[in-house]
Amino acid sequence: MRHAWIDASAGVAGDMLLGALLDAGARLETVRAAVEAVVPGQVRLGREQVTRAGLRATRAHVTPAGHGHHRTWRDIRLLLTRAEPAEPVRENALAVFARLARAEARVHGIEADEVHFHEVGAWDSIADVVGVCAALHDLDVSEVSAGPVAVGSGRVVTAHGELPVPVPAVAELAAGWRIHAGGQGELATPTGMALVTTLARECTELPPLRLEATGVGAGARDTPGRANVVRVLVGAPGADPAEAVVPAESVVLEANVDDLDPRVWPSVLSALMEAGASDAWLVPILMKKGRPAHTLSVLSPPGHADELRAAMFHLTTTLGVRERTVRKTALERGWVHVDALGARLPVKVGHRDGVVVQATPEYEPAARLAAERGLPVRTVLDAAVAAAWTAGLAPGRSVPRELRPHPSL
Q1: For 118-129, what is each residue's pLDDT tens digit?
Q2: What pLDDT was estimated at residue 262?
Q3: What's the rounded Cα separation, in Å, for the pair 256 and 298?
């Protein structure tokens, strides 16, 4: 599995990202073939070496063979559906344009299928989107992330007239992403922003990688003092030992308690989790002389046993804590959001060797949605399970690209 991290700190456009991927090693002939499959005979692709503020970069040239036309999302979807590029290329291109259509529809207050793409409807922008998706596939990239995006400032003239920067479509596409101005003018185009926010699973600083290739893609302008480029760093994901999620060994702390008000136990378990426990649970037992009691068990990561032992003494009435070392084997896990009952619900996915092993809807968000809609919680959970299976989150299926790391185990 290879990971690509996009540095869009100077802005991003479709041709800039395509140039960066070609510079990182994607084969131009492969990209050409994918674009030709979608818009045969309509564009010519080329590349050249240029400099931007003294930095070497690759400029991708997408030259229409004829005139570009305004066309709807329905038209573009038909072109992509009828084409025969590799399946991941088609799926990713469809996802990018679908996100663009939703953004434009919201901006203009119309249905997504009726959106007329102006700049992004021309042959060259279709080639940018398909080309980027094909280049990622050619580089064997299965996972993408990106840093904050520079969107620019000021005003720009578009097909809709003069608009503030970031233009409304870029602002809509950037929802939930970290952005900054970064300079004057339009630094992020709708196509570039859609590619980043659709293909990248999260906005993050450079993750740990065994770096294999770096690509630098140039924009059209050469701005003195600011390199107008997008960078792509490609490599194999490498875990940072300091951030290892699954410990090889853990400690189980236990105590039998027979004199604590049972109403207190939920707060005890919550406090132990907040104190750093990997897990905490309670088991009813029967002690000597027939006294009902509970065994409190706490799974402690290495190095946290002292704090958690102290918390057990502080939070309960126990006079002693026993402990033992255990080995913990955990699946890699992450979150994927699915559409269910008109809402986005998180599903926790456990996977191993790139294959899904478990996929379970998270209870709390489902319970909140059930309360909002006046539905039984089981109805919401069942809908989330069905949506997860529809999305391919089933045992034995490949782990999806958008899977992002679980914040804690």
Answers
A1: 544 467 788 999
A2: 92
A3: 12
- 228 vs 129: CA distance, rounded Å: 20
| DSSP H or E stretch at residue 380 | helix 377-390
Q: What does 48-86 look like in DSSP terms, one character per residue?
A: EEEEETTEEEEEEEEEESS----EEHHHHHHHHHH--S-
Which residues touch 22 (CB under 8 Å, ≥6 apart)?
28, 31, 47, 58, 60, 135, 215, 217
Q: Give me the residues of the chain with pLDDT under 50, please.
A: 119-121, 240-246, 404-409
Quickly list DSSP for 170-224.
HHHHTTTS-EE--SSEE-B-HHHHHHHHHH-S-B-SPPPEEEEEEEEEE-S--BT
Q: d(Cα 227, Cα 247) in Å, to the nearest integer?
A: 43
Angle value at C-alpha 349, between 347 and 350, nearest 5 degrees: 155
How many Å apart are CA 74 and CA 71, to the nearest integer? 8
Spell out the alpha helix ranges (H) of 24-146: 28-38, 73-82, 87-108, 123-138
Q: Give the tens place of pLDDT for each residue, 378-398.
A: 999 999 999 988 888 888 787
Helix, coil or strand: residue 80:
helix
Q: Which domains does the chain have, with CATH numbers?
A: 2-237 (no CATH), 249-327 (3.30.70.1380), 332-405 (3.10.20.300)
> Hunting for tokens 């994918």 — which residue is that?
34
Under DSSP, the state recorded for 313 is H
Tens digit of each residue's pLDDT (9 = 90 or more) over 200-225: 989 999 999 999 999 999 999 998 88
Quick one: which H or E segment has residue 232? strand 229-237
C-beta separation of 98 from 81 below 8 A: no
Q: What is the total residue count of the chain?
A: 409
* Cα 395 to Cα 214: distance, rounded to the nearest angstrom: 35
Q: Which pLDDT belongs to residue 252?
A: 94
Distance CA 62, CA 129 (A): 11
Residue type, 379: T
CB atoms closer than 10 angstroms to residue 30: 18
Angle at 79 between CA 73 and CA 83, to 5 degrees: 145
Residue with tokens 């050619």: 138
